[in-house]
């Protein structure tokens, strides 16, 4: 019987990602973030005039259920609207890894946990926003000289188990890759492209 | 003025891909390949019963025009139907890199050129075919235990210039990334997902 996950005979080394069962993690609630989660074009425009190109980061956190990868996404509790990856805007001068760790703490760290260590791994993709709308592209569109925002995605290797704690106005969901694939209508282009971006990894189901 | 292409301050090193102008390359014609380019479910089924999982490879060859990346794709000359990346099925026991080089020779090498050297680089993505239709997924769908075909995509770094020679029943086209993005209807899912897969590279326009 052929091992389906075998490496191509003479190919470059394939990267491995370790996925643990969703049951290894607990999902609790902490105080609401009171943050606005929607893009507000007028506010984005004012910030752009102050600070220029906005740098954002997001983390791709994976678990498995019955040996199929699931991605952790956030959604508002109130109206079950759009989905997004944990992350957000960097502070001026802040680095990607520093900012992503701070955002993951905000969104996911238990308040009882003193310190956090997020194992931020590979750079997966970049999305560019040419204007203050939700439109985004994985390249700078031709004739766009001043994109307004750049979103960098990173793979985050989760520990074998941990306790997540999510602001009460948000919920954290583990969505199977087969559900987000080809489903930009429901999950948006950033999340729906994850199955393809992750297909180059050898998945180690633990 | 901020350099848009700058690296994130503390991020892992970003990979670079060198793109040369499309005008650096010439595109000629050689004898028709007489091969069947469409997927034939009955024939695929027979082959599967003989040989098991079919291993295929394809190359992502990039050029630029006015500093926007373009991908080289093939199309039948006759009826201008579907598009595909240069590549094809491996022989039994053949490695990915060996097979991809052979296929790139078949499709693109000038007959006057004695030897070829294709610089096959990063592994970009895998697509799985659970049956003998055109359906494919960047993961093995749950409950599929015997996928029928696995397609591995590799980035191929082109030389600064060269003479391509294409079988006369095919044409080679350089399609801008902005045209294939979100355009699975025209280009298929494999090609339309390339902009997102390539967004993690720093592009060096030469
Ligand atoms: Zn599940
Ligand atoms: Zn279960
Ligand atoms: Zn062009
Ligand atoms: Zn030109």
TrEMBL record, chains A, B:
Q: What does this protein do?
A: Component of the cleavage factor Im (CFIm) complex that functions as an activator of the pre-mRNA 3'-end cleavage and polyadenylation processing required for the maturation of pre-mRNA into functional mRNAs. CFIm contributes to the recruitment of multiprotein complexes on specific sequences on the pre-mRNA 3'-end, so called cleavage and polyadenylation signals (pA signals). Most pre-mRNAs contain multiple pA signals, resulting in alternative cleavage and polyadenylation (APA) producing mRNAs with variable 3'-end formation.
Name of the protein this chain belongs to: Cleavage and polyadenylation specificity factor subunit 5
Q: Which Pfam families match?
A: NUDIX_2
Give the organism's phylogenetic lineage: Eukaryota, Rhodophyta, Bangiophyceae, Galdieriales, Galdieriaceae
Query: Could you give one GO CC term from the UniProt record?
Result: cytoplasm
Membership in a protein family: Belongs to the Nudix hydrolase family. CPSF5 subfamily.
In what residue span(s) does the Nudix hydrolase domain sit? 53-179
A Gene Ontology biological process noted in the UniProt record is: mRNA 3'-end processing
Q: Tell me one GO molecular function of this protein.
A: mRNA binding
Q: Which UniProt keywords apply?
A: Cytoplasm, mRNA processing, Nucleus, RNA-binding
Q: Subcellular location, in the record's words? A: Nucleus; Cytoplasm
Assembly and interaction partners: Homodimer (via N- and C-terminus); binds RNA as homodimer. Component of the cleavage factor Im (CFIm) complex.
UniProt cross-references to Gene3D superfamilies, sorted A to Z: Nucleoside Triphosphate Pyrophosphohydrolase (3.90.79.10)
């Amino acid at each position: 019987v052929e091992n389906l996950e075998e490496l191509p005979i003479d190919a470059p080394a394939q990267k491995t990602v370790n996925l643990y069962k969703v049951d290894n993690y607990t999902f609790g609630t902490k105080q609401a973030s009171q943050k606005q989660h929607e893009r507000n074009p007028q506010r984005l425009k004012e910030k752009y005039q102050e600070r220029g190109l906005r740098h954002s980061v997001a983390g791709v956190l994976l678990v498995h259920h019955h040996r199929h990868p699931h991605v952790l996404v956030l959604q508002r509790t109130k109206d079950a609207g759009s989905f997004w990856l944990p992350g957000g805007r960097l502070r001026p001068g802040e680095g990607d890894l520093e900012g992503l760790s701070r955002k993951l703490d905000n969104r996911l760290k238990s308040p009882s946990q003193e310190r956090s260590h997020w194992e931020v791994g590979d750079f997966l993709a970049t999305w560019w926003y040419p204007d203050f709308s939700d439109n985004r592209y994985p390249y700078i569109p031709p004739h766009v000289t001043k994109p307004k925002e750049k979103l960098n995605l990173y793979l985050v290797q989760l520990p074998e188990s941990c306790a997540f704690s999510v602001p009460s106005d948000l919920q954290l969901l583990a969505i199977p890759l087969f559900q987000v694939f080809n489903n930009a209508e429901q999950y948006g282009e950033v999340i729906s492209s994850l199955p393809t971006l992750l297909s180059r990894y050898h998945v180690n189901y633990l």
